[in-house]
Design brief:
15 helices, DNA recombination, Integrase_catalytic, hpI Integrase, Chain A, Integrase-like_cat_sf, Tyrosine-type recombinase/integrase
Length: about 325
């Protein structure tokens, strides 16, 4: 070996951050690579509850197929094949999009798993197979804002049919006034109701928490609902007649029933999220983009680019928009 060879090796070791002493100490003990059955349980216990709810059914599927395989074994091709199988076997719902969402969530669940594996040095980022499998391209959403007459039809049917019209009309008004998602409504607790300022605290996806104005009338109905059906010192606000906390099944029942009375609801696959589109579209048309963005609870730059750093609306402006929407003065609105 020449002097030049030795110098080249020294230069390489310096760039890698490795010393001669490191080499002399011998190989370090590495953690054994786990199987999917072992690692899914570990990751499921480390992620937030919302992430666990979103991915746990897909993790169960991975364990059922690859449970005893090491997490380093599957190839990008195998992951793509499993995503296609998931797509074919997806449950057909009213708003199904050909299983694309199921395939997207399967890949997302595996990417989440492998992010932890990379962080723990169980696998290198270069060898992460899930990162090299593209998610299915999302189709353009069919959701849109509902005309005022259509929204009135929905509220009329909800108030005159079903086994609990009081609950259903309260749900519809809550979503229409706040433009919240289902998760935000279901997470609402008694301590989230600020009567003095007539605002509610919403906890939604991504761990976001925000205060959202509601009309004094809606606040009174929420309090009356809690007084009649609530349980515990600070439990979930929305409940069935018997006091059992509401679940997403109530939404499925509500929109199925509305579709039976209003064929256009079933044909166009209208869901609760259409109410969010309706309210936010109205807010943007009447009060501008900044207010609509604040009304929606969007905070990241990805929601509208760098300009959103400078274009922000405050809670008072959202309250003013709500007052115009409901025709009822709000305590925080511009007087």
């Amino acid at each position: 070996m020449t002097t030049a060879d030795v110098e080249a090796i020294r230069l390489l070791l310096a760039r890698l951050g490795v010393s001669v002493d490191d080499l002399r100490d011998g190989p370090t003990t590495q953690r054994a690579v786990p199987t999917f059955r072992e690692y899914v349980g570990q990751v499921a216990g480390a992620v937030p509850p919302s992430t666990r709810r979103a991915y746990e059914s897909y993790w169960r599927q991975v364990v059922a197929v690859w449970g005893d395989r090491l997490i380093v074994e599957p190839t990008p091709l195998e992951i793509a094949q499993l995503a296609e199988e998931t797509k074919r076997r997806a449950v057909l719902r009213r708003n199904a999009r050909g299983g694309r969402s199921a395939a997207e969530h399967l890949i997302g669940a595996l990417r989440c798993l492998y992010r932890y594996a990379v962080a723990e040095d169980l696998i290198s980022e270069r060898d992460n197979p899930a990162a090299r499998v593209p998610k299915p391209r999302r189709l353009t959403s069919t959701r849109r804002a509902l005309p005022e007459a259509r929204l009135a039809e929905i509220n009329e049917v909800a108030a005159t049919t079903g086994n609990d019209p009081e609950l259903d009309t309260l749900l519809l008004r809550l979503h229409t006034e706040t433009a919240c998602r289902r998760g935000g409504a279901l997470a609402l607790r008694r301590s989230d109701l600020d009567v003095e300022d007539s605002v509610v605290q919403l906890r939604e996806k991504g761990g976001t928490v925000r205060w959202q104005p509601v009309s004094p009338t809606l606040m009174r109905h929420l309090l009356a609902h809690w007084d009649e059906r609530g349980s515990g010192a600070d439990g979930q606000v929305l409940r069935y007649r018997a006091g059992r906390p509401l679940t997403t099944r109530r939404y499925d029942y509500l929109w199925t029933r509305l579709g039976q009375h209003l064929p256009w609801v079933a044909t166009q696959q209208v869901t609760t999220h259409w109410l969010r589109h309706t309210t936010l579209t109205w807010a943007e048309r009447n009060f501008g983009y900044a207010v609509a963005r604040a009304y929606a609870g969007h905070t990241g730059k990805g929601d509208g680019g760098t300009t959103t750093t400078y274009i922000r609306a405050d809670l008072q402006e959202v309250a003013t928009a709500l007052a115009a929407l409901t025709g009822e003065p709000h305590p925080l609105g511009v007087r």
